[in-house]
Amino acid sequence: MFYTDLKPNQAYLILDDKTRYYFTGLQSSAGHLFLTSKGKTLYIDSRYYYHANEVLAGKVDVKLLKTTDAVFKEVLSSGIDELFIDYSLVTVSEYIKLLTYGFKVLDGQTVLQQTMSVKTEDELKCIQKACDIAFEAFTKTLPFIKTGVTESYVKSVLEDFMRKGGASGTSFDTIVAFGKNAGVPHHETSDAILQDNECVLMDFGCVYKNYCSDITRTMFNGTPDKKFLDAYNAVLKANILAEDNIYHGILGIDADKISRDYLESVGLAGYFTHSLGHGIGLNVHEAPTLSPKSINTLLNNMVFSIEPGVYFDGEFGIRIEDTVVLIDGKVQKMFNDDKNLIIL
Ligand SMILES: [Mn+2]
Q: How many A from CA of 331 to the centre of ligand 1?
Protein backbone atom coordinates (compact mmCIF):
# COMPACT_ATOMS: atom_id res chain seq x y z
CA MET A 1 0.00 0.00 0.00
CA PHE A 2 1.08 3.57 -0.74
CA TYR A 3 1.30 4.61 2.90
CA THR A 4 3.95 2.03 3.80
CA ASP A 5 6.41 4.22 1.85
CA LEU A 6 5.76 7.33 3.95
CA LYS A 7 8.54 9.00 5.94
CA PRO A 8 8.32 8.58 9.75
CA ASN A 9 7.06 12.17 10.16
CA GLN A 10 4.26 11.74 7.60
CA ALA A 11 0.72 10.35 7.67
CA TYR A 12 -2.45 10.35 5.67
CA LEU A 13 -5.34 11.73 7.71
CA ILE A 14 -8.78 10.42 6.73
CA LEU A 15 -11.78 12.35 8.03
CA ASP A 16 -14.65 11.37 5.70
CA ASP A 17 -16.89 8.39 6.45
CA LYS A 18 -16.54 6.49 3.17
CA THR A 19 -12.76 6.61 2.93
CA ARG A 20 -12.51 5.64 6.60
CA TYR A 21 -14.79 2.68 5.88
CA TYR A 22 -12.62 1.76 2.88
CA PHE A 23 -9.47 1.48 4.99
CA THR A 24 -11.01 -0.04 8.13
CA GLY A 25 -14.16 -1.90 7.10
CA LEU A 26 -15.92 -0.21 10.02
CA GLN A 27 -18.95 2.04 9.54
CA SER A 28 -18.95 5.16 11.65
CA SER A 29 -20.16 8.73 11.38
CA ALA A 30 -17.02 10.24 12.93
CA GLY A 31 -13.39 9.39 13.61
CA HIS A 32 -9.82 10.31 12.74
CA LEU A 33 -7.90 7.65 10.84
CA PHE A 34 -4.14 8.00 10.38
CA LEU A 35 -2.26 5.89 7.84
CA THR A 36 1.48 5.77 8.49
CA SER A 37 4.41 3.62 7.41
CA LYS A 38 3.73 1.51 10.51
CA GLY A 39 0.04 0.93 9.82
CA LYS A 40 -3.37 2.31 10.70
CA THR A 41 -4.42 4.20 13.83
CA LEU A 42 -8.07 5.04 14.38
CA TYR A 43 -9.18 7.57 16.99
CA ILE A 44 -12.87 7.00 17.55
CA ASP A 45 -15.36 8.23 20.16
CA SER A 46 -17.06 6.19 22.85
CA ARG A 47 -20.11 5.37 20.68
CA TYR A 48 -17.92 3.10 18.54
CA TYR A 49 -14.78 2.53 20.59
CA TYR A 50 -15.54 -0.85 22.19
CA HIS A 51 -17.05 -2.35 19.07
CA ALA A 52 -14.17 -1.02 16.95
CA ASN A 53 -11.61 -2.48 19.34
CA GLU A 54 -13.25 -5.87 19.02
CA VAL A 55 -13.73 -6.09 15.26
CA LEU A 56 -10.52 -4.32 14.21
CA ALA A 57 -8.18 -6.12 16.64
CA GLY A 58 -4.86 -6.92 15.00
CA LYS A 59 -5.67 -4.80 11.91
CA VAL A 60 -6.06 -1.27 13.19
CA ASP A 61 -4.70 0.36 16.34
CA VAL A 62 -7.91 1.71 17.90
CA LYS A 63 -7.71 4.60 20.38
CA LEU A 64 -10.44 6.37 22.30
CA LEU A 65 -11.09 9.84 20.95
CA LYS A 66 -11.83 12.26 23.78
CA THR A 67 -11.20 15.59 22.06
CA THR A 68 -9.68 16.45 18.66
CA ASP A 69 -7.27 18.66 20.55
CA ALA A 70 -5.91 15.64 22.42
CA VAL A 71 -5.67 13.62 19.19
CA PHE A 72 -3.58 16.19 17.36
CA LYS A 73 -1.32 16.83 20.36
CA GLU A 74 -0.68 13.09 20.69
CA VAL A 75 0.04 12.73 16.97
CA LEU A 76 2.42 15.71 17.01
CA SER A 77 4.24 14.37 20.06
CA SER A 78 4.69 11.02 18.28
CA GLY A 79 6.78 12.89 15.69
CA ILE A 80 4.24 13.24 12.87
CA ASP A 81 4.06 16.79 11.54
CA GLU A 82 3.17 16.32 7.84
CA LEU A 83 -0.35 15.28 6.91
CA PHE A 84 -1.72 14.28 3.52
CA ILE A 85 -5.44 14.93 3.22
CA ASP A 86 -7.97 14.72 0.40
CA TYR A 87 -8.53 18.42 -0.34
CA SER A 88 -11.86 17.64 -2.00
CA LEU A 89 -13.26 16.09 1.19
CA VAL A 90 -11.97 18.33 3.97
CA THR A 91 -13.73 21.52 5.06
CA VAL A 92 -11.97 24.86 5.23
CA SER A 93 -12.35 24.91 9.02
CA GLU A 94 -10.76 21.45 9.34
CA TYR A 95 -7.91 22.57 7.09
CA ILE A 96 -7.29 25.77 9.08
CA LYS A 97 -7.36 23.79 12.32
CA LEU A 98 -4.58 21.51 11.07
CA LEU A 99 -2.45 24.53 10.15
CA THR A 100 -3.13 26.09 13.55
CA TYR A 101 -1.77 22.97 15.28
CA GLY A 102 1.41 23.42 13.24
CA PHE A 103 1.04 20.56 10.74
CA LYS A 104 2.36 20.87 7.23
CA VAL A 105 -0.63 19.91 5.08
CA LEU A 106 -0.27 18.27 1.66
CA ASP A 107 -2.84 17.15 -0.91
CA GLY A 108 -3.32 13.38 -0.87
CA GLN A 109 -6.38 13.41 -3.10
CA THR A 110 -4.81 11.83 -6.19
CA VAL A 111 -3.28 8.86 -4.40
CA LEU A 112 -6.37 8.16 -2.28
CA GLN A 113 -8.74 8.41 -5.21
CA GLN A 114 -6.58 6.26 -7.47
CA THR A 115 -6.28 3.60 -4.81
CA MET A 116 -10.04 3.46 -4.26
CA SER A 117 -10.81 3.46 -7.98
CA VAL A 118 -9.16 0.06 -8.55
CA LYS A 119 -11.52 -2.48 -7.02
CA THR A 120 -10.80 -5.74 -5.21
CA GLU A 121 -12.70 -8.95 -5.97
CA ASP A 122 -14.87 -8.47 -2.88
CA GLU A 123 -15.75 -4.93 -3.91
CA LEU A 124 -16.64 -6.10 -7.41
CA LYS A 125 -18.99 -8.71 -5.95
CA CYS A 126 -20.83 -6.04 -3.93
CA ILE A 127 -21.13 -3.72 -6.95
CA GLN A 128 -22.37 -6.58 -9.15
CA LYS A 129 -24.98 -7.42 -6.52
CA ALA A 130 -26.05 -3.75 -6.36
CA CYS A 131 -26.41 -3.87 -10.16
CA ASP A 132 -28.40 -7.12 -10.05
CA ILE A 133 -30.80 -5.76 -7.44
CA ALA A 134 -31.34 -2.53 -9.41
CA PHE A 135 -31.94 -4.37 -12.67
CA GLU A 136 -34.35 -6.86 -11.20
CA ALA A 137 -36.30 -4.00 -9.59
CA PHE A 138 -36.39 -2.22 -12.96
CA THR A 139 -37.81 -5.33 -14.68
CA LYS A 140 -40.46 -5.67 -11.98
CA THR A 141 -41.38 -1.99 -12.27
CA LEU A 142 -42.01 -2.01 -16.03
CA PRO A 143 -45.60 -3.38 -15.81
CA PHE A 144 -46.50 -0.49 -13.48
CA ILE A 145 -45.53 2.19 -16.02
CA LYS A 146 -48.74 3.08 -17.85
CA THR A 147 -50.50 6.14 -19.23
CA GLY A 148 -51.88 8.11 -16.26
CA VAL A 149 -49.27 7.26 -13.59
CA THR A 150 -47.00 9.96 -12.14
CA GLU A 151 -43.21 10.14 -12.13
CA SER A 152 -43.27 10.00 -8.30
CA TYR A 153 -45.37 6.83 -8.35
CA VAL A 154 -42.94 5.05 -10.67
CA LYS A 155 -40.07 6.21 -8.48
CA SER A 156 -41.68 4.79 -5.34
CA VAL A 157 -42.49 1.44 -7.00
CA LEU A 158 -38.90 1.09 -8.23
CA GLU A 159 -37.30 2.08 -4.93
CA ASP A 160 -39.58 -0.29 -3.05
CA PHE A 161 -38.51 -3.20 -5.28
CA MET A 162 -34.84 -2.29 -4.77
CA ARG A 163 -35.24 -2.35 -0.98
CA LYS A 164 -37.22 -5.60 -1.10
CA GLY A 165 -34.44 -7.02 -3.25
CA GLY A 166 -31.88 -6.41 -0.52
CA ALA A 167 -30.66 -2.85 -1.10
CA SER A 168 -30.01 -0.70 1.97
CA GLY A 169 -31.07 2.38 0.03
CA THR A 170 -30.71 4.26 -3.24
CA SER A 171 -27.30 5.41 -4.40
CA PHE A 172 -28.77 8.82 -5.32
CA ASP A 173 -32.19 10.44 -5.68
CA THR A 174 -33.96 8.35 -8.35
CA ILE A 175 -34.79 10.23 -11.54
CA VAL A 176 -38.00 9.41 -13.40
CA ALA A 177 -38.71 11.80 -16.29
CA PHE A 178 -41.59 11.67 -18.76
CA GLY A 179 -41.64 13.31 -22.20
CA LYS A 180 -40.17 16.80 -22.26
CA ASN A 181 -38.95 16.39 -18.67
CA ALA A 182 -36.44 13.86 -20.04
CA GLY A 183 -34.97 16.76 -22.03
CA VAL A 184 -33.50 18.02 -18.74
CA PRO A 185 -30.48 15.73 -18.07
CA HIS A 186 -31.02 15.70 -14.28
CA HIS A 187 -34.74 16.34 -13.99
CA GLU A 188 -36.21 16.39 -10.49
CA THR A 189 -38.90 13.67 -10.30
CA SER A 190 -42.32 15.36 -10.14
CA ASP A 191 -46.06 14.72 -10.20
CA ALA A 192 -46.11 14.89 -14.00
CA ILE A 193 -48.57 12.36 -15.47
CA LEU A 194 -47.51 9.96 -18.22
CA GLN A 195 -49.29 10.64 -21.52
CA ASP A 196 -49.61 8.46 -24.60
CA ASN A 197 -46.64 8.69 -26.94
CA GLU A 198 -44.10 10.00 -24.44
CA CYS A 199 -40.68 8.70 -23.52
CA VAL A 200 -39.83 7.53 -19.99
CA LEU A 201 -36.28 8.05 -18.71
CA MET A 202 -35.23 6.36 -15.47
CA ASP A 203 -31.83 6.97 -13.87
CA PHE A 204 -31.36 5.04 -10.64
CA GLY A 205 -29.14 2.85 -8.54
CA CYS A 206 -28.99 1.19 -5.16
CA VAL A 207 -26.56 0.46 -2.37
CA TYR A 208 -25.56 -3.06 -1.34
CA LYS A 209 -23.06 -3.48 1.53
CA ASN A 210 -22.09 0.18 1.05
CA TYR A 211 -21.39 -0.18 -2.70
CA CYS A 212 -23.38 1.60 -5.40
CA SER A 213 -24.85 0.81 -8.80
CA ASP A 214 -25.91 3.31 -11.47
CA ILE A 215 -28.09 2.67 -14.52
CA THR A 216 -30.28 4.67 -16.91
CA ARG A 217 -32.77 3.29 -19.38
CA THR A 218 -35.08 5.23 -21.71
CA MET A 219 -38.35 3.62 -22.85
CA PHE A 220 -41.31 4.75 -24.92
CA ASN A 221 -45.01 4.71 -23.99
CA GLY A 222 -46.66 4.36 -27.39
CA THR A 223 -45.30 4.72 -30.89
CA PRO A 224 -42.10 6.75 -31.27
CA ASP A 225 -41.58 8.96 -34.33
CA LYS A 226 -38.53 8.84 -36.59
CA LYS A 227 -36.72 11.67 -34.79
CA PHE A 228 -36.92 9.78 -31.47
CA LEU A 229 -35.96 6.42 -32.99
CA ASP A 230 -32.97 7.86 -34.85
CA ALA A 231 -31.77 9.61 -31.70
CA TYR A 232 -32.28 6.43 -29.63
CA ASN A 233 -30.31 4.30 -32.07
CA ALA A 234 -27.51 6.89 -32.16
CA VAL A 235 -27.22 6.95 -28.35
CA LEU A 236 -27.28 3.16 -28.22
CA LYS A 237 -24.54 2.97 -30.84
CA ALA A 238 -22.49 5.59 -28.93
CA ASN A 239 -22.91 3.45 -25.79
CA ILE A 240 -21.89 0.18 -27.47
CA LEU A 241 -18.95 1.78 -29.31
CA ALA A 242 -17.54 2.97 -25.98
CA GLU A 243 -18.15 -0.45 -24.44
CA ASP A 244 -16.33 -2.20 -27.30
CA ASN A 245 -13.41 0.20 -27.62
CA ILE A 246 -12.45 1.23 -24.09
CA TYR A 247 -9.37 -0.69 -22.96
CA HIS A 248 -6.91 -0.92 -20.04
CA GLY A 249 -4.63 2.11 -20.36
CA ILE A 250 -6.93 4.41 -22.35
CA LEU A 251 -7.13 8.02 -21.14
CA GLY A 252 -10.46 9.18 -19.70
CA ILE A 253 -10.41 11.93 -22.37
CA ASP A 254 -10.10 9.40 -25.20
CA ALA A 255 -12.80 7.14 -23.76
CA ASP A 256 -15.20 10.09 -23.76
CA LYS A 257 -14.17 10.96 -27.32
CA ILE A 258 -15.36 7.57 -28.64
CA SER A 259 -19.01 8.37 -27.99
CA ARG A 260 -18.68 12.12 -28.52
CA ASP A 261 -17.08 11.74 -31.96
CA TYR A 262 -19.73 9.27 -33.06
CA LEU A 263 -22.61 11.52 -31.93
CA GLU A 264 -20.90 14.40 -33.73
CA SER A 265 -20.68 12.31 -36.92
CA VAL A 266 -24.46 11.86 -36.91
CA GLY A 267 -25.15 15.55 -36.24
CA LEU A 268 -25.87 15.24 -32.50
CA ALA A 269 -22.72 16.87 -31.08
CA GLY A 270 -24.53 19.80 -29.50
CA TYR A 271 -27.07 17.57 -27.77
CA PHE A 272 -24.61 15.49 -25.70
CA THR A 273 -24.11 18.01 -22.94
CA HIS A 274 -22.37 16.06 -20.18
CA SER A 275 -19.47 13.68 -19.55
CA LEU A 276 -19.49 10.09 -20.79
CA GLY A 277 -18.98 8.59 -17.36
CA HIS A 278 -17.64 8.49 -13.81
CA GLY A 279 -16.21 5.98 -11.38
CA ILE A 280 -18.58 4.06 -9.10
CA GLY A 281 -17.83 2.39 -5.78
CA LEU A 282 -18.52 3.44 -2.21
CA ASN A 283 -19.44 6.76 -3.82
CA VAL A 284 -21.81 6.90 -6.77
CA HIS A 285 -19.54 9.53 -8.31
CA GLU A 286 -15.83 9.02 -7.82
CA ALA A 287 -12.60 8.69 -9.81
CA PRO A 288 -12.00 8.07 -12.67
CA THR A 289 -13.86 10.50 -14.91
CA LEU A 290 -14.52 9.89 -18.60
CA SER A 291 -14.82 13.42 -19.95
CA PRO A 292 -13.12 15.99 -22.19
CA LYS A 293 -11.41 17.32 -19.02
CA SER A 294 -10.44 13.97 -17.47
CA ILE A 295 -6.96 13.59 -16.02
CA ASN A 296 -7.41 9.83 -15.38
CA THR A 297 -6.23 6.69 -17.12
CA LEU A 298 -8.66 3.77 -17.11
CA LEU A 299 -7.17 0.61 -15.63
CA ASN A 300 -8.17 -3.00 -15.02
CA ASN A 301 -10.59 -3.47 -12.11
CA MET A 302 -11.90 0.09 -12.31
CA VAL A 303 -15.69 0.38 -12.24
CA PHE A 304 -17.31 3.27 -14.08
CA SER A 305 -20.41 4.34 -15.96
CA ILE A 306 -20.81 4.67 -19.73
CA GLU A 307 -23.72 7.05 -20.21
CA PRO A 308 -24.08 8.91 -23.48
CA GLY A 309 -27.25 10.96 -23.85
CA VAL A 310 -28.93 13.53 -26.09
CA TYR A 311 -31.39 16.16 -24.91
CA PHE A 312 -33.91 18.07 -27.01
CA ASP A 313 -35.15 20.91 -24.83
CA GLY A 314 -38.95 20.97 -24.60
CA GLU A 315 -39.31 17.68 -26.52
CA PHE A 316 -37.56 14.61 -25.08
CA GLY A 317 -34.26 13.21 -23.88
CA ILE A 318 -32.47 9.88 -24.17
CA ARG A 319 -29.72 8.48 -21.97
CA ILE A 320 -28.49 4.89 -21.88
CA GLU A 321 -26.21 4.20 -18.95
CA ASP A 322 -24.42 1.09 -17.78
CA THR A 323 -22.15 0.35 -14.86
CA VAL A 324 -19.16 -1.55 -16.28
CA VAL A 325 -15.82 -2.92 -15.09
CA LEU A 326 -12.52 -3.27 -16.93
CA ILE A 327 -11.35 -6.89 -16.71
CA ASP A 328 -8.29 -8.25 -18.54
CA GLY A 329 -8.14 -5.13 -20.65
CA LYS A 330 -11.74 -5.15 -21.80
CA VAL A 331 -15.06 -3.72 -20.71
CA GLN A 332 -17.26 -6.24 -18.91
CA LYS A 333 -20.91 -5.24 -18.58
CA MET A 334 -22.65 -5.46 -15.22
CA PHE A 335 -26.11 -5.47 -16.85
CA ASN A 336 -26.86 -8.00 -19.53
CA ASP A 337 -29.89 -6.67 -21.42
CA ASP A 338 -29.52 -5.75 -25.11
CA LYS A 339 -30.60 -2.13 -24.41
CA ASN A 340 -32.89 -2.12 -27.46
CA LEU A 341 -35.78 0.33 -27.09
CA ILE A 342 -38.49 -0.98 -24.77
CA ILE A 343 -42.00 -0.08 -25.92
CA LEU A 344 -44.24 0.06 -22.84
MN1 LIG B 1 -24.26 8.00 -13.66
A: 16
